[in-house]
Amino acid sequence: MDNANKYVGMWVTRDGYIRHELLPNGRYDEARGNKKSAYQGSYIITGDHIDYKDDTGFTADGDFREGILYHAGMVLYRED
């Protein structure tokens, strides 16, 4: 399994406020609070690093370490 597929799924902050769904087609959907699809865009995973580009052109990145996604000052955990 390549890394992109290894990380596909839902990632959430501990309080559940921010939810990143990494889709298998290289797209993501981010929900914030009660707002579904607050941000959408594409992502590329290289090793354990993720680069995001939302549909407005905004970019961000993050790193997966020991099963946790560290992204823009947030800590997200895989949701089972």
Automatic annotation (TrEMBL):
Lineage: Bacteria, Pseudomonadati, Bacteroidota, Chitinophagia, Chitinophagales
Family annotation (Pfam families): Atu4866 (PF11512)
Superkingdom of source: Bacteria
Protein name: Uncharacterized protein
Species per Swiss-Prot/TrEMBL record: Chitinophaga pinensis (strain ATCC 43595 / DSM 2588 / LMG 13176 / NBRC 15968 / NCIMB 11800 / UQM 2034)
